[in-house]
Amino acid sequence: MRYAFVGLGHRAQMYVDALLGGWSDTGEITALCDPNRTRLGYYLDRIGRDVPCFAPGDFGAMLDLADAVVVATVDAAHARYVVAALDAGKDVVVEKPLCTTAEDCAAIAAAAERSTGRLIVTFNYRYSPRNSAVRRLIAAGAIGEVTSVHFGWSLDTIHGADYFRRWHRDRANSGGLLVHKATHHFDLVNWWIADAAASVYAQTSLRFYGAGNARARGLADRPGRAHRAPGLGTDPFLLDMSADPRLKRLYLDAEHEDGYIRDQDVFGEGVTIDDNMSVLVRYERGALLTYSLNAHAPAEGYRVVINGTAGRLELDVVERAWTPPHAAIDPTASGKEHAEGASERLVLHRHWRRPEEIVIEQGAGAHGGGDALLLDDVFRGPSDDPLARRAGYRAGVASVMIGVSANRSAATGAPVALTAGGTRAAD
Questions:
Q1: Which of 1, 185, 271, 364 is the most exposed place for a label (fewest CB within 10 A)?
Q2: How many CB atoms lie within 10 A of CB 235?
Q3: What is the pLDDT of residues 61-116, one digit of tens each?
């Protein structure tokens, strides 16, 4: 297979490295597309040979050099490239979220239906052993018919803050965290319980980040960005890109070309997304989901409780137990698999029986072996997977539409009912 890449930020690297490493027998990288020549240079150095490079305006010409396209651009641009590639009959691998609007969901769905190419949305959380174990238990009937799900996710002031210093802080680019981040979580619930959302109600707020909150807490004289700021190295919210070779090359050294500032102050002007979100979803078969997302917690992880007619599952995950001072760069991002204090525990409770702790089988490699399984599905093709972890456009649309509907509900104060063609205000 000949693979072309569009969007060469850090998200593309996992797929580039796979084709240069353990999956090199499945295909080769034949073209790159990005508006920034410096970032193109970073990946050309990584690939180690000349590869044709294209500007976004020449994407159509690039398709002649590819059998498949990996899309890892800013979220709001996904639909443009996905639809064009599908209409050219190419396979498409797209980072989550599939897109950011109901209109783009409809356009991608129509293109996927008429295309001879396949589309894969890379929901890597499905492949995590703990999340796969939940799917396996529910499918086996361990808790009977699912009646309700409670899902609480906490992002800490390393990971959560990062969304408020880069392009994600602008809702027009990312759809907000209910689309960009929560699409992972909504997809997990959809996949776990094998059901589709029927209605959504949400409330959201921006309570911690942004200039208004900074002023209210007396945080005056904030820098516009971290680079060369007086507090760099002592302020935990200032990201020192020069301290990370990859961030420096991809962003700091590249910003003179396109003006993209990767280290904006999280307490600055221009934040249009929320940092506290609560969502209530009713599913078609009657199950209820209560979901919450907080982006300024002192620790990172999630808790899921799934109730059924025959029992209950409880999954507790600590991804980072505490946030070290002055650690704006994720200390687990450079190959360290587990942060200090990380843990996971899955417990099955059945009526009239003692609780049973479920052993979570780990594989080799990142995310308990989950990344390797995902890359197999992407580059080697579908396997006979009883858990059906590989996701297509329908799963991508289903998760995005919960987030889009939640944003609409939060803006209007009214619940939103989902239909096959999009959303409409609930009666």
A1: 364
A2: 18
A3: 999 999 999 999 999 999 999 999 999 999 999 999 999 999 999 999 999 999 99
Spatial separation of the C-alpha atoms in residues 251 and 422, rounded to whole Å: 36
Average pLDDT over residues 292-297: 98
Phi, psi of 423 (to 5 degrees): -135, 160
CA dist 389 → 97, 134, 187 (Å):
16, 12, 11
Sheet strand arrangement including 53-54: 53-54, 28-33, 2-6, 68-71, 91-95, 119-122
In whole angstroms, what is the distance from residue 307 CA to residue 302 CA?
Answer: 17
Residues facing residue 344 across a β-bridge:
317
Helices of type H across 88-164: 102-114, 129-139, 159-162
pLDDT of 423 strictly over 50 = no
> Which residue ranges form the domains of the chain, and what is each CATH number?
2-121 (3.40.50.720), 125-209+271-363+388-425 (3.30.360.10)
Question: What is the full DSSP assignment across 247-301?
Answer: HIIIIITTHHHH---TTB-TTSTT--S-SEEEEEEEETTS-EEEEEEEEEESSEE
- In degrees and rounded to multiples of 5, residue 128 shows phi and psi of -60, 130
Cα 240 to chain centroid distance, Å, stands at 23
**Number of helical (H) and strand (E) elements in the chain, helices listed first:** 15, 16
What the block records as the tokens of 235 is 């302020």
Q: Residue 78's CB: how many other CB atoms inside 10 A?
A: 27
Is-contact 300 320, C-beta < 8 A? yes
Q: 85: part of which helix (H) or strand (E)?
A: helix 78-87
pLDDT exceeds cutoff 60 at 421: no
Q: What is the arrangement of strands in the sheet containing 197-205, beginning at the earlier edge strand?
A: 356-358, 343-350, 311-320, 300-308, 146-156, 288-297, 276-283, 197-205, 416-419, 422-425
Considering only CA atoms, which of 328, 273, 318 is closest in space to residue 161? 328
Q: How far is CA 275 from the centre of its chain?
A: 16
Count Cβ atoms within 10 A of the Cβ of residue 23 and give its class: 0-12 exposed, 13-18 middle, 19 or more buried.
Answer: middle
Neighbouring-strand partners of residue 205: 276
Q: For the chain, give the number of residues.
A: 427
